[in-house]
Amino acid sequence: MPKCVTLIRNVEVADGSGRSPEIADVAIDQGRILAIGSLHNYEAENIFDGEGKVLAPGFIDVHTHDDTSVIRGPQMLPKLSQGVTTVVVGNCGISASPVQLRGEPPDPMNLLGNAESFRYPTFAAYAHAISAAQPAVNVAALVGHTALRNNHMDRLDRAATGVEIEGMRVQLQEALDHGATGLSTGLAYLSAHSSSTEEVMALAELLAAAGAIYATHLRSETETILQAMDEAVRIGKHAAVPVVISHLKCAGIANWGRSAEVLEWLDHARQHQPIGCDCYPYAAGSSTLDLRQVDERVKIQITWSKAHPEKAGQTLAQIAEAWGVQQIEAARRLQPAGAIYHSIAEQDMQAILRHPGTMIGSDGLPNDPLPHPRLWGTFPRVLGRYCREQGLFPLGEAVRKMTSLPAQRFGLADRGWIREGHYADLVLFDPATVRDVATFEDPVRASIGIEAVWVNGALSYREQTPTGERAGRFLPRRPNRSTR
Ligand code: ZN
Ligand code: CU
After folding, report:
1. What confidence tens digit (pLDDT) does each residue in 216-258 have?
2. Is 440 exposed, middle or buried (0-12, 13-18, 19+ CB in 10 A)?
């Protein structure tokens, strides 16, 4: 009789391909998927009845700012409770490594923590720290352009010189040699906005030889978004690497209704080179409080403020009224601060979410005391609100966006599919009840309907409770041969 550690019986298997789920038994042994099919002759130490449930590859959160939280909070409950088994850190130009600070981290690196959180002068030191911390989820890491700039430049409101670019290239190469997944930029932020396209190209040139990718928070997500997308495409073409447009959106009221135009432009670019995007399933964004985004017509919630911590949770309109000033002046007084901007149209977000090239990325901010609910709700929200309730896509397609598509794009070998021999990163959920419960008013709440989560074969979450297993690994980039 064949033996295995874990057997999940009679379950609807959504294998990551995009196809509709099909009933099967799945056997797990030694951290990998041993067999899939009709396995009643198998003997197992642990047997799960999967009747009425769906088994999918563990979700891959391609857009996170979990760089320091995977080390400081290795239980990773916000992600594990959603069925996420791998996070990609280092997005938007900001990464925990390689970093040498002089003083406090500049905006928006401060989203990752204060100066004490940045302890990794080399990427190798960071990868080592992840392994030592034993997080509950796997971690793949990008290197942030802004982090590199800050290591080599006395001020960030200008383009880098040739010597500075050379210094950044040396550090990026060290990171790629130690398994970095790619380079990220945050060109909209003032700390990177003055960099030239050529500066980014000079860095991106190193990526192709390592099989790495370029992920970008565009230079503009508002009126000039198409020019910003064109810049991203030119950088990808110059470096001959795949491009991921981070949290694609049409931000700002003047930009509402443009998703069709933006996606048409993306489709055209996709005919010529590998390019995709990620998206979070909410009509609101969140980051540091940016004076350029203050618009009295847009609801802005303050998530934190160094100058006025007591104002966290209030809207900028309330604060401005209490102080008897304009919102822009209130925003100035709150600095440095964080905010949620309700500046996206629901219809645009849905159109982008539905696009076949769109992956799911939470963009959650784990250091915020009152975080945007995407930190705890993104993946169950895609399955519950957008797949089951609104019928935006079939279940198989929802799973593909969260599993095989990102595994292939980010070079996560033997993950993202339910296939024999693949790592047993798995999530068991109830398709009839799975949903997010975190809200803008009450954002720190675990989703419901996630029944069990395995990471590298270890049962890590069960019945709304972490088991205490922390079986995640640092994932160096390795192209996924099986899905090419
Ligand atoms: Zn971003
Ligand atoms: Cu981000």
Report:
1. 999 999 999 999 999 999 999 999 999 999 999 999 999 999 9
2. middle
Tokens describing residue 140: 């793949």
Which of 3.20.20.140, 3.40.50.150, 1.20.272.10, 3.30.420.240 is the CATH number of 59-283+344-409? 3.20.20.140
Ligand number with the minimum distance to the CA of 365? 2
* Span from the CA of 429 to the centroid of ligand 1 (angstroms): 29
Q: Which of 280, 96, 90, 100 is nearest to 186 (CA)?
A: 90
Residue 416 to residue 484: CA distance in whole angstroms: 13
**CA atoms of 114 and 65, how far apart (whole Å):** 14
Alpha helices in 58-217 (DSSP H): 69-72, 77-80, 123-133, 145-152, 162-177, 190-193, 197-204, 207-210
* Cα angle, residue 399 at apex, residues 286 and 355 outer, rounded to 5°: 60
Report the C-alpha gap between 64 and 249 in whole angstroms.
Answer: 16
CA of 224 to the centre of ligand 1 (A): 16
Ligand 1 center to residue 274 CA distance, Å?
20
Average pLDDT over residues 119-140: 98
For the domain bounded by 287-340, which CATH number is listed?
3.30.1490.130
> pLDDT tens digits, residue range 424-460?
999 999 999 999 999 999 999 999 999 999 999 999 9
